[in-house]
Amino acid sequence: MTGLIITGGSIDCAFAGAFLKDKTFDMVIAVDGGLAAVKQLDIRPDAIVGDFDTVKGELLEEYGQIEGITFEQHQPEKDETDTELALRTAMEAGVSDMVILGATGGRLDHSIGNIHLLYACLQKGVKASIVDEKNRLYILDQGKTYRSSETWGKYISFLPLTEEVHGITLKGFKYPLTNWDIRIGTSLCISNELEAETGTITFRDGVLICVESHD
């Protein structure tokens, strides 16, 4: 089951419209202020989740008139962000593959927190990625093969999410590595590029943040 979450960070609606064209999702969730982008993109959400502190009241009222949309309102004083609550709602509904828009470009604490939420998805066996006009970001706990025709852009970066990641081997990349260990606090694996049509990363243990990006 696939899901789309549109949350309240910065969203380039021209990019989002082009990205979402011809894509379908089994469940769409608007998160608080992200409802404004949902309206601009002319998307019908299945659920609207949040404490509703950043969304305009008249917009909530408008969507409240549409039959079949679930409203999940939370108190502002809570332990989770609205985005975490939306992810929980999606996973409880059975979503196993989700895309998140609006998770970057706003407050830095929320952006970093949203990256950590991807790790929570990984732990539950849920595939999740954050996308914006320049980046596609996801978490790896095992190797992956990259194809130049499928990557988000020219650059592929790997950053450790765990304290250490052991035995990284990069093949088919401009800057290859063989059985290399990296720790949090290094920028060694930022801005690599595929040198061939395909490239692979393997590693023994640890967890990596992967960012595919372009200028």
UniProtKB/TrEMBL annotation:
It comes from the Bacteria. One of its GO terms (molecular function) is kinase activity. Its EC number is 2.7.6.2. It is an enzyme of class 2 (transferase). Pfam families: TPK_B1_binding (PF04265), TPK_catalytic (PF04263). The keyword Transferase applies. InterPro entries: Thi_PPkinase, Thiamin_PyroPKinase_B1-bd, TPK, TPK_B1-bd_sf, TPK_catalytic, TPK_catalytic_sf. Residues 143-209 form the Thiamin pyrophosphokinase thiamin-binding domain. NCBIfam families: thi_PPkinase. This is Thiamine diphosphokinase. The lineage of its organism: Bacteria, Bacillati, Bacillota, Clostridia, Lachnospirales.
